[in-house]
Write a structure and sequence with these properties.
Length: about 250
């Protein structure tokens, strides 16, 4: 099974770093706040797995909120170098490994979190299988992915009329759950499209109880402050899911 690691491509990494440094995009105003809201109210004393931990922002925030320990996994050496440089905490452990390989971990967890990473993973079912074994009974899983209506078409762009106005967001081949070769900073970024049905039913089939599903969009107040966010009110950019590992599974 292939393990995609675009974050170690120097052109991709430079583009991604520039985007994050601006601090005014969808991640900051929408994705991160909603993801945190779906987590347990208190992270105190929890053992946490951060899948696709990147530069470790969530790991450090979780420890600041009282988490007992955080293990962050990521395939990118570039991202982990950033994470380690910014972290001085023996209770945070960054490990260079793919999400697909999390079953190799010896530890078990109270909470597993993934921010915009699972749509880069080919075998979603195998990840859920590993999580069903690595989460303690009653443990929480919270994740975000690009919304399936965004991943359905590889081009991932609005259609425009002759005046340059966005007319609609195309959705096609929605039931074709396969890879999409996309462009994000560089060509050849592979995302795996799967339906909302597959995301939810996969959880149910692996012994999870769905607790929340959200398709959040920017608020009108956010759009007034940043007009460039307006198109994202016309279709949800992200899918958010929280679930609990049922006891006895």
């Amino acid at each position: 099974m292939s393990r995609q690691n675009v974050y170690d491509d120097p052109r991709f990494f430079a583009g991604y770093q520039t985007l994050r440094q601006k601090g005014a995009g969808l991640n900051e105003c929408l994705e991160q706040p909603v993801l945190r809201r779906l987590m347990p109210d208190s992270l105190a004393n929890l053992s946490i797995l951060d899948m696709g931990c990147g530069s470790g922002d969530f790991a450090r925030a979780a420890r600041a909120e009282g988490a007992a320990r955080v293990i962050g996994i990521d395939l990118s050496g570039n991202m982990l170098a950033e994470a380690r440089a910014r972290t001085d905490d023996p209770a945070i452990d960054y490990r260079e490994m793919a999400i697909e390989d999390l079953g190799q971990l010896d530890e078990c967890f109270d909470l597993a979190v993934s921010s915009l990473a699972l749509h880069y993973v080919d075998d979603y079912a195998s990840v859920l299988d590993a999580l069903a074994r690595k989460l303690n009974e009653g443990g929480h899983l919270v994740f975000s992915v690009e919304h399936p209506i965004c991943t359905a078409v590889a081009r991932q762009r609005w259609h425009f009329d002759e005046d340059g106005q966005a007319t609609h967001w195309p959705v096609d081949n929605y039931r074709d759950e396969s890879s999409r070769d996309t462009h994000w900073f560089i060509d050849g970024v592979v995302k795996y499209h799967r339906s909302l049905e597959t995301y939810v039913n996969g959880l149910l089939e692996h012994g999870f109880r769905l607790t929340r599903l959200e398709e959040a969009v920017p608020t009108l107040e956010q759009v007034r402050a940043t007009p460039a966010l307006w198109p994202h009110r016309r279709r949800p950019p992200f899918l958010f899911i929280s679930a609990v590992r049922e006891t006895g599974q």
